[in-house]
Amino acid sequence: MSSVPLKDQLDIVIPTIRDLGFLEQWRPFFQPYHLIIIQDGDPTRKISVPEGFDYELYTRTDIERILGDKAWAISFKDSACRCFGFMVSKKRYIYTIDDDCFVAKNPSGDDINVLEQHIKNMLSPSTPFFFNTLYDPYREGTDFVRGYPFSLRDGVPTALSHGLWLNIPDYDAPTQMVKPRERNTRYVDCVMTVPKNTLFPMCGMNLCFDRDLIGPALYFGLMGEGQPIGRYDDMWAGWCTKVICDHLGLGCKTGLPYVWHSKASNPFVNLRKEYKGIFWQEEMIPFFQNLTLNKETTDVCELYLEMAEKVRSGLGHIDPYFTKLADGMIAWIHGWRQLNPATKA
Ligand SMILES: O=c1ccn([C@@H]2O[C@H](COP(=O)(O)OP(=O)(O)O[C@H]3OC[C@H](O)[C@H](O)[C@H]3O)[C@@H](O)[C@H]2O)c(=O)[nH]1
Ligand SMILES: [Mn+2]
């Protein structure tokens, strides 16, 4: 990390349809940072933001004004709209959190500073090429275990840090319906690198990533109004991101920190959003598992555009949605480059 203070290197992106009173609980940890609030739904609605926070707020009207003919690629009436915040930020790191996530406590009863842990995760290397059975080898009080190749102990740069949730777990609708009262009470004191060539179900609730390393891959797809699926926004972004991280030799970590997820969304509404995705993902996953990208390409925007064309040819047979999604991926990159000209270079 450069000599620039952390608070000036990280933006917090919050998608919301609610007043942001939840920030009161986060004030000790979030107040020094700049917030990017993506107000979804009715742009004329006034949402309240507690005093003392430094923020910029974008409504659908703003997204359409800024992106013009590319605005359609940003979802409406779905938390996927958050990715617009990733695009407009000028900072190196993004932390994104849902507005029903609160400060969790560790087993000692201390409040968890999610930003402190995510940045620790981001600033220490990842180990995607060989699994360390004592988990994060760079953590105080642990190390690489016997038999771990010394040639791999430098690790690789970390592009993404995926945090978890106590209380309401991020279950899909079918699981939520059969286990409506299940709560996650298990605090696992661990951070792991997701091994190379292994996909994982990335949840956008408590997520940090390095915009410079992987930002253009974090498109949350076409969800919400007018789209046949929802609640696959973060999953899609996670699969695309992991394939590109594997291609570039970058790491994705999961585990600490935890947030307290307070609200279970309606499983019946969720099932309606998810059900096509539950079938389609049985083809999407093998597609991503077998996806290879041009070995000569290292630019994330270029890799993402190549991926878009492979989505069109490799998934278009499932449903016309995927052809539209491929177009959305392209429009996203054009929007990214419009707002981040340096990336074009
Ligand atoms: O139309 C909408 C609906 C919600 N939001 C904002 O998105 C955040 C998540 O909403 P919520 O907590 O109500 O839904 P969950 O089911 O818990 O969300 C999970 O599944 C969907 C996403 O993948 C999400 O990341 C997961 O956490 C919250 O901040 C709402 O205000 C919205 O912007 N537009
Ligand atoms: Mn929630």
TrEMBL record:
Site (Required for activity): R146, R153
Catalytic activity: UDP-beta-L-arabinofuranose = UDP-beta-L-arabinopyranose
A GO cellular component entry from the record: cytosol
TM stretches of this protein: none
Enzyme Commission (EC) number: 5.4.99.30
Lineage top rank: taxon: Eukaryota
Pfam families for this protein: RGP
GO biological process, one term: UDP-L-arabinose metabolic process
Keyword rRNA-binding on entry: no
Example GO molecular function: UDP-arabinopyranose mutase activity
Protein purpose: Probable UDP-L-arabinose mutase involved in the biosynthesis of cell wall non-cellulosic polysaccharides.
Family assignment from sequence similarity: Belongs to the RGP family.
Protein name according to UniProt: UDP-arabinopyranose mutase
